[in-house]
Amino acid sequence: MKLTLEGIKDASEWRNAGIKLPKYEVEQTRAAKNPEWVHFGAGNIFRGFIGSIAQSLLNQDLSDTGIAAVETFDFDIIDKIYKPYDSLTLNVMMDKSSNLDMTVQAGITEGVKSTDYARLCEIAENPSLKMMSYTITEKGYNLYAPDGDLMGVVKSDIENGPEEPKHAMSVTAYMLYRRFKAGGYPLAVVSMDNCSHNGEKLQSSVMTIAKAWVDGGKAEKGFIDYLNGNVSFPWSMIDKITPRPSEAVLNKLTELGVEDMQPVVTSKGTYIAPFVNAEIPQYLVVEDDFPNGRPALDKAGVYMTTRETVNKSETMKVTTCLNPLHTALAVYGCLLGYKTIWEEMNDAELVKLVKKIADEGMKVVIDPGIIDPQKFVNEVISERLPNPNIPDAPQRIATDTSQKVGIRYGETIKSYMKSDELDVKTLTAIPMAIAGWIRYLLAVDDNGNAFERSADPLLDDLTAKLSGVEWNKPESANGKLSTILSDKTIFGVDLYEAGLGERIEASVKSMLKGSGAVREALKQL
After folding, report:
1. Are strands 187-191 and 131-134 parallel, antiparallel or unpaired?
2. Which fold has domain 7-305?
3. Residue 134 pLDDT level (bands cut at 50, 70, 90)
């Protein structure tokens, strides 16, 4: 069996293998001349989640066209994963019992390189287009170099004007400019990336480039009026884990007779396969602001709501129900020698830690009203984190922790401090999570062995502040932790003013007592 338009014509083979096929005439959707949806970012979360939304609408006869996928960074994805397989994807959803739900996903109609300006113009200028969406990671919206100046590629795009842009935000501004010139048709431009206020970040970057073009005489002043009056930038919250391709899934597909499923490593270092393996739970909450109408997203499991509710959903996830637990597992997983998150969920002390973190956050959780926080966190702890088919690594999740702890723990601490009913000093698990991160920064595990820390923009600075703190010498931490624990730019609050600084110091020192000290500290929680 081959994953191509020709290969799926023999439906019986696929069905006998337990693989579901689209319920519509796939080739007819490829002939559609009036696109409604174009998406930037052709990687796994798009193929495994967003593309399946389009397939659901097609299966229900609520749409007659899928999504055009635009790749701005790694063109090998188009050449090696899209074109050879006619833009089809084999989605494999996996629960913790290793049950596989396999589907040929054809909701993505084409893969387009961002340098194919002719095709981008055709899509952008068509009045039928209703939305442009994005999963390009938070970095994809950034226009600035570390020194605060515009990146070189952005400067070049601004100087050249709306012709042959390179940066993803410049390509977006270019398509919007062509749409403006073609008739000023309205459009929703929707970030679906996993970052707070994502629509605001997208809008800011697009407007920066557009204003620079106008100020430089590269575009008419009316372009800004068009962006302000006819283009919306809805916010969203997305949640789904789509790890790298699984060897076990590859072997299963090969055993079933599906050919050519081997992953590839692109020239940009992307590890990707014709199939996507992912967890079953998935959440997408989108602000319902679509000036040119929208696909019936609400009929495909998407929560369509207000900006306020989107923001509450994001806050619920990142400050209480998922991200704080993930970060705690990441740093303690590195200290205790774990290689996967799911294995950590067989560790009684770590399970106790994350449950207590959730319980502490649940007392001040932001309830979005559309997703029940308690049910969400129960699913995270009982189904999602223990799933052995989602082999995410604590070392990966520990990346950039200094940029995360202020949101994941600081917000809950501040809520306790503001409360008339709660005492912030009753917190125990959240301080233990923070102490675990400080202990992690020493790059020595619980057996005294050195390990490599994950990338973090503050790593050099934090290392310098901890200079002299040594494993097996708790007293070496005396006077060394206060500059970090009092830093409001990291935690959003001075942890000493919160009444937690001394407790965290004591926990760090207890974890420096020698081999097994981290484990013993967890047992005392």
Report:
1. parallel
2. Rossmann fold (3.40.50)
3. very high
